[in-house]
Amino acid sequence: MGKPKVYITRQLPQKAIDMIKEYYDIVGIWEEYYPPPYEVLLEKVKDIDALVSLLTDKIDKNLIDNAPRLRIIAQYAVGYDNIDVEYATQKGIYVTNTPGVLTEAVADLTWALILSVARRIVEADQFVKGGEWWRTKTGWHPMMMLGMEVNGKTLGILGMGRIGRAVARRAKGFNMRIIYYDKYRLSEDLEKELGAEFVDFETLLKESDILSIHVPLTKETYHLIGENELKKMKKGAILINTARGAVIDTRALIKALEEGWIAGAGLDVFEQEPLPPDSPLTKFKNVVLLPHIGSATTETRTRMGELVAENLIAFLKGETPPTLVNKEVLKIRKPGFD
Ligand code: GLV
Ligand code: GLV
Hints:
The protein is of the alpha/beta class. It is built from 14 helices and 12 strands.
């Protein structure tokens, strides 16, 4: 048997391509900046054994049914809400992701958003570059660009997985009270180490000065933050989302910002990506918007690529891939191509 065939839905770091090439026949790489259209992907998967996917690729039942030889989907992302994992499992298809390697990069970006919103960094930058500062003829003013102090405030973390914990670790330097809510409570030791206190969802909403979201998008977390939740938050609170856009009900958030239920928001992810420039979100000065760049550092993207390759290679060797998402699949089919 020749090398198994893999299709890759976007240009990956070269290191990953080189690693994959040694074991797989790369039948194609989508070379455009934008994602392959669904119809193209449907065609591409017909005859492949493995697929490297991105979060912008919709891997649904129909697509899986079009890929009778497909044995593994190696996702280049930690989140995998774009994939019908349940159906893949039924079909004996392995699904892998890239957790761990992007944790610190996402936590850094979360903090960049927290500080940007709290201290009005983007607004202040525009104030200088746009000449407005110059026009005030005032170098320093007691009331210029007053923001919110971060030091000593309460940081609320919704979802205390790897990324949530990395965000909590960074909060220590800011002398914050850290509260969190998650489906799963951390061990007492870990809570102590992080200085984080477990609270119920309601308390998290009511007591956080900064509320940062780190849950995956699932049926349970879809629109978890809606009107009711936003109304419970402090008027002075800042909402941060570097997880998935659809965890927040966007229309409710816009209303909350318009009516001043909360003080500001920092968003790296949206229900619709790319975010249309006429979205009402773009009109708020107290909202910082980023184009889904949580894991976007050269180092992290390289490690994500390597992990994708490691998953593919382990599978080919008949081993359990290091970051397998659907462990139940092990009962349905052994790893490897037969
Ligand atoms: C990015 O959003 C990821 O899930 O890795
Ligand atoms: C992702 O890496 C998480 O578990 O938070």
